[in-house]
Amino acid sequence: MSSSKPVGMILSRTEKDLPDTKSLYTETFDVIELAEHVKKQQWWNKMFGKNNSGPAAEKYSVAKQLAIGGVSGWCAGYLFQKVGKLAASAVGGGFFLLQIAHHTGYIQIDWKRVEQDVNKAKKQLKLSSDKPPKEVRTKFNEVQVFVKNNIVLTGGFAGGFLLGLAS
User: Fold this and answer.
1) What is the model's pLDDT at position 112?
2) CB of 102 within 8 A of CB of 109?
3) Structure confidence by residue, pLDDT tens digits, 74-128
4) What are φ and ψ of residue 23, in 5° steps?
5) Which 8-state DSSP code applies to residue 32?
6) What angle do the packed helices 151-166 and 134-149 form, to 10 degrees?
7) Which terminus of the chain, N or C, has fewer Cβ atoms within 10 Å?
8) Which of helix, strand or coil describes residue 21?
9) pLDDT: is 3 or 36 the higher one?
């Protein structure tokens, strides 16, 4: 076992390992790495194959890739549409209630201070947006490689996403 902690683990014990009153604090467990355990199961190999790394183009037909990408894209687009409407309604409703409260005299808003704070935030965003952080560039490169290796799948996802937004 390496010194790093496994991502997932299963703790198992048998009846003979159950503690009695004398050894209540000295029980031992077998640590099994979940990822390795699952890869040895028959159903995993039937579902994903022995070597499940690499682009989807090597494992699935074009029709399957388009179907998987299209369905998952449609689901993501549909959820994005619903959540987007909810968020827009919440933000718009908040501003609407703020305006009503201001006009009826419940609150006083210092608009000059709001404008100064917004301009200050714009300047800070402009300064920090010149060069993206290393983590963003790394993730962007990973996404580029994935899209290049799975062009049919991502094309199906993009089409499904647009259909999900439209429905």
Assistant:
1) 92
2) yes
3) 999 999 999 999 999 999 999 999 889 988 988 888 889 999 999 998 888 777 6
4) -110, 40
5) E
6) 100
7) N
8) coil
9) 36
Please report which residue ranges of the chain form alpha helices under DSSP H: 34-39, 42-48, 62-103, 111-128, 134-149, 151-166
Region of 54 please: left (phi>0), alpha (psi -120 to 50) or beta.
left
DSSP code for 16: G
Give exposure, 129-157, as e/b (b: 16+ Cβ within 10 Å): eeeeeeeeeeeeeeeeeeeeebebbbbbb
Measured CA to CA, the distance from residue 22 to residue 38 in angstroms comes to 35
Give the Cα separation of 143 and 2 in Å (integer): 30
- Give the span between the Cα atoms of 55 and 73, in whole angstroms: 18
